[in-house]
Design goal:
This protein is of the alpha/beta class and 524 residues long. The chain has two domains: 268 residues, no CATH class; 171 residues, no CATH class. It is 28% helix and 23% strand. The protein contains 14 helices and 22 strands. The strands form four sheets. The chain has a nine-stranded mixed sheet with strand order 13-21-14-20-15-19-18-17-16, with helices on one face. It has a six-stranded mixed sheet with strand order 4-5-1-7-8-9, with helices on both faces. Strand 7, helix 4 and strand 8 form a beta-alpha-beta unit. The radius of gyration is 27 Å and the shape is globular.
């Protein structure tokens, strides 16, 4: 009898403990280990410039977290994984990357990945238009070499600019892949966060790699200045993406415009869709590719396009300022050298700007380390005369002598290092030690320049970034010469795949059926 009572008590205790465990499960699953790596630049092979390692301002280890607001210490994303940041290098667009710079950054990345593995995932943050001396597919090469270290089973989520290029190799080695859906890229951080959330969701759910990746090369090569999502037809084209992503069994869908100023076989548009439902993934990709092809002839420049003379005529006739002129051919944010003097030379020769009382004009900008050195010597208010520009790209105009009064000096800029404003006649020329794009109002006001109160602002840029776009009272994109010439016919492609629209305007209908790619596919 006594044994029976003891046995019943033990059974009751076991039952109680089981119920306690049922109501309070203990999660012993370890968070996934995810590495972070990437090298990003948009580089023109039509520019004589070359990009060296220091231009990438590479972040190493935990300093990488500061690049992304969503990686703040208290953020939910930061808490969902054990993050292993390695190397992240991001450079201003420019010329082709030297092989030495590339190999140096790659070797550092691979070393850190080897030392800190193993991993469940990799967040691969790139631009997608990096050209490297001696390589046809830099990002594809980089990811393949990373795969050789981390293994084929690690889940890789690739985040890109929509002006990047998705080669078959990059598609093969990326499990999840996405890109911006806006140009200008107001959704850049949102897109990177989406790439990370897709990665986390697949790891946490145990679903792992998507069953299907549909890749469709689209034989279209257009400059970004014709494909802005602010206007049609780009606006409606990219508006189709959410409906494809919303389908059951689809993880992500993306359209890459591609990069027009590099001469490599991978330079063309691409559509990719990833997911677990073969039919939805395939149909979604083919829908987007066909939609892109069908509207190919509708793409036009996002603003009136004219010669520099015609642009200045419109600007001088404008009753409100600022009238902004895009000096497109040497746009440093598209890969131009940034030191072509052709436009500045034309401006300085114009009689309208010879007098201090002429129409006010800001020119942004021209590198001139020799002038910067003299400006630092004489200081604000001093007179300078020195050569500027054309150290890198002198194909269109030689270095020019700039003479005037220093009205502002600023040291410590990340890109320019030192900036000076030189006033000559009614033109304020921003001179930099190293090239720098001028996209924000603060870039000007920090130099005591006030673009909203200026008649004409000439900026080395293509389509206007949001701040400049919002302040413009008039705008023309000038067809000026340089390494990112908007007239693609003048570039002289030799290595892109032909036929290619619009270079071959009457080409036959291409095959836009989806190719399903897996990691085991043998590449051509």
């Amino acid at each position: 009898m006594k044994k029976s009572i003891i046995l019943l008590f033990c059974l009751a205790l076991i039952t109680f403990n089981c119920k306690e465990n049922d109501t309070k499960p203990v999660d012993t699953k370890e968070p996934p280990r995810i590495a972070i790596a990437g090298i990003g630049i948009e580089s023109s092979t039509f520019s004589p410039a070359q990009t060296h390692e220091e231009a990438f301002h590479a972040r190493i280890g935990d300093s990488i977290f500061g690049q992304y607001p969503f990686f703040a210490d208290s953020s939910s994303i930061r808490k969902r994984a054990e993050w292993v940041p390695t190397l992240l290098g991001k450079a201003l667009p420019g010329g082709i990357v030297t092989r030495e710079a590339y190999e140096s950054m790659v070797s550092k990345t691979l070393k850190m990945l080897k030392e800190n593995g193993p991993y469940d995932g990799l967040f691969f943050d790139i631009h997608g238009a990096m050209s490297v001396v001696g390589l046809e597919d830099a990002e594809g090469d980089l990811l393949q070499r990373i795969r050789d270290v981390i293994g084929i089973d690690v889940l890789v989520s690739t985040s890109m600019d929509l002006h990047g290029n998705v080669s078959e190799g990059l598609a093969k080695h990326s499990d999840l892949i996405t890109c911006y859906r806006m140009a200008p890229h107001e959704d850049a951080l949102e897109s990177k966060e989406r790439a990370i959330i897709n990665l986390l969701d697949r790891l946490e759910s145990g679903k792992g790699k998507p069953a299907y990746k549909a890749w469709i090369p689209v034989p279209i090569l257009l400059p970004g200045e014709k494909t802005s999502t602010r206007i049609e037809p780009g606006k409606s084209l990219y508006a189709q993406i959410p409906s494809v992503v919303a389908k059951e069994g689809v993880i992500d869908a993306a359209i890459w415009i591609g990069y027009a100023w590099a001469d490599e076989p991978r330079n063309h548009a691409v559509v990719m869709v990833t997911g677990d439902d073969k039919e939805e993934v395939t149909q979604g990709a083919e829908q987007l590719a066909k939609a892109f092809w069908d509207i190919r002839k509708e793409f036009e420049f996002v603003a009136p396009v004219a010669t520099l003379d015609e642009s200045l005529k419109l600007a001088l006739e404008s009753k409100e300022g600022p009238y902004i002129i895009s000096d497109m051919g040497d746009n440093p944010t598209a890969g131009g050298a940034g030191d072509v003097t052709w436009t500045l030379n034309e401006l300085l020769a114009r009689p309208e700007f010879k007098s201090k009382n002429g129409p006010s004009l800001i020119y942004a900008s021209i590198p001139g380390p020799e002038l910067i050195e003299k400006a630092l010597e004489v200081g604000v208010g001093g007179e300078v005369s020195a050569m500027v520009g054309a150290r890198v790209d002198n194909r269109y105009s030689p270095p020019l002598k700039l003479t005037g009064t220093v009205t502002a000096l600023k040291e410590g800029d990340r890109d320019a290092e030192v900036e000076a404003v030189v006033r000559t006649g009614s033109i304020s020329v921003i001179v930099t030690k190293k090239r720098k794009p001028y996209h924000h109002e603060k870039d000007f006001t920090d130099l005591n320049l006030h673009p909203r109160e200026t008649d004409i602002v000439v900026v080395k840029i293509g389509y206007l970034v949001p701040e400049l776009y919002d302040m413009r009272k008039g705008w023309t994109m000038a067809l000026t010469p340089g390494g990112v010439d908007q007239d693609l016919e003048r570039l002289g492609y030799e290595n892109i795949k032909r036929p290619m629209f619009p270079l071959d305007a009457d080409m036959e209908e291409p095959d836009l059926s989806a190719r399903l790619i897996s990691a085991s596919d043998k590449l051509n």
